[in-house]
């Protein structure tokens, strides 16, 4: 389902703007708050601390050989990738998707 904004959502917003979008999602049956939506990034990154809080066994990670490059040019090797069930929205307007 398309996420869209109405004129009412723009009340008090000075245009043009590039404010970040922060939302709450249910990830693997845990409510995850303060998720930053970065429309300029092509990677969905979950930090190790957050991964540990989801109580997912590390052996479920799939090997990733491609390093990530930080904004300052530093290379970081990810621990791996994983497919997680994500539920955006609230009932009755919600959907469940698998994200890597």
Report the total helices: 1
Can you list the strand order of the major beta sheet?
A: 2-1-5-8
Write down how many β-strands occur, each being a DSSP E stretch of 2 or more residues: 8
Return the domain count: 1
Structural class: mainly beta
First CA to last CA: what distance?
19 Å
Helix content: under 10%
Biggest β-sheet description? 4 strands, antiparallel
- State the shape: globular
Mean of residue pLDDT values? 81
- The percent range for strand residues is 25-35%
Would you kindly provide a written description of the structure presented here, covering whatever features stand out?
The protein is mainly beta. The protein has one domain. Helices cover 6% and strands 30% of the residues. The protein is built from one helix and eight strands; from the N terminus they run E-E-H-E-E-E-E-E-E. Strands 2-1-5-8 form a four-stranded antiparallel sheet, with no helix packed on it. A two-stranded antiparallel sheet has the order 3-4. It is globular. 1% of the residues are buried. The mean pLDDT is 81.
């Amino acid at each position: 389902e398309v996420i869209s904004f109405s004129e009412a959502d723009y009340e008090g917003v000075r245009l043009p703007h590039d404010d970040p979008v922060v939302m709450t999602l249910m990830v693997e049956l845990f409510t995850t708050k303060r998720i930053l939506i970065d429309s300029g990034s092509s990677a969905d990154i979950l930090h190790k601390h957050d991964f540990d809080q989801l109580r997912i066994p590390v052996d479920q990670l799939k090997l990733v050989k491609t390093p990530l490059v930080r904004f300052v040019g530093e290379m970081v090797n990810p621990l791996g990738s994983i497919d997680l069930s994500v539920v955006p929205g609230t009932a009755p307007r919600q959907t469940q998707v698998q994200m890597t």
